[in-house]
Write a structure and sequence with these properties.
A 6-stranded mixed beta sheet has the order 6-7-8-9-12-13. The chain has a single domain, classed as Metallo-beta-lactamase, Chain A (4-Layer Sandwich), CATH 3.60.15. The chain is 26% helix and 28% strand. A hairpin with a 2-residue loop joins strand 10 and strand 11. Its cofactor is Zn(2+). This is Hydroxyacylglutathione hydrolase GloC.
Length: 213
């Protein structure tokens, strides 16, 4: 069975998530933006075998610790979509701009595309390409657990910013409605910041993407 634990990291309180198969205790970490010692402490506490890094997108608060973690533990980096290559290239500059520890450059082991899957232990998650916040943003979805890790595409009561380079508001709205809503109203999503919510709740109450808006 699929399990997860969300741990806020960095000064931006970014929701980094450990995800694992409770049959094998094999685990991946989604968006290790920083605070690696805290993350690894949770891995040890839970008795997990951390084997992969999964990235939704390459903004500093989501990807800043990726290069160091991959180097330290020899982990493959899965994602995001190659549309975020320029954000990866700019991580050292991003870290200076926002006062983060120096970010190591990295090369993803595998780029992700819409319709791909990722696997950890006995658990398989679906990948959806959801551009708009960044051009290479992806989302990870577990149909069995009815959970989706959506990065900065959608928040409880809000949506991701589109004023960064290559962001686009109309594209983001289309990603939410065409890629997220079909996962079902009862699916719980874990956003990149803030509390969890359900797609059904956001379809009713989110002022940016509610039905009829």
């Amino acid at each position: 069975m699929f399990q997860y634990l969300t741990i806020p990291v960095t000064a931006f309180d970014q929701n980094c998530s450990l995800v694992w198969c409770d049959q094998t205790l094999q685990a991946a970490v989604i968006d290790p933006g920083g605070d690696l010692d805290e993350l690894l402490g949770e891995v040890k506490r839970l008795g997990l075998k951390l084997e992969q890094i999964w990235l939704t997108h390459a903004h500093i608060d989501h990807a800043g610790g990726t290069g160091e973690l991959a180097q330290r533990l020899g982990l493959p980096i899965i994602g995001p979509h190659e549309g975020d290559q320029f954000w990866i290239d700019g991580l050292p500059a991003q870290s200076k701009m926002f006062g983060f520890p120096p970010a190591l450059l990295f090369k993803p082991t595998r780029w992700l595309h819409d319709g791909d899957t990722v696997k950890i232990g006995e658990c398989t998650l679906q990948v959806r390409h959801c551009p708009g916040h960044t051009p290479g943003h992806v989302v990870f979805y577990s149909p069995e657990a009815k959970r989706a890790f959506v990065g900065d595409v959608l928040f409880a009561g809000s949506i991701g910013r589109t004023d960064f380079p290559q962001g686009d508001h109309a594209t983001l709205i289309a990603s939410i409605r065409n890629r997220l809503w079909p996962m079902g109203d009862d699916t719980v999503f874990i956003p990149g910041h803030g509390p969890e919510s359900t797609f059904g709740r956001e379809r009713k109450t989110n002022p940016y993407v509610a039905d009829g808006v």
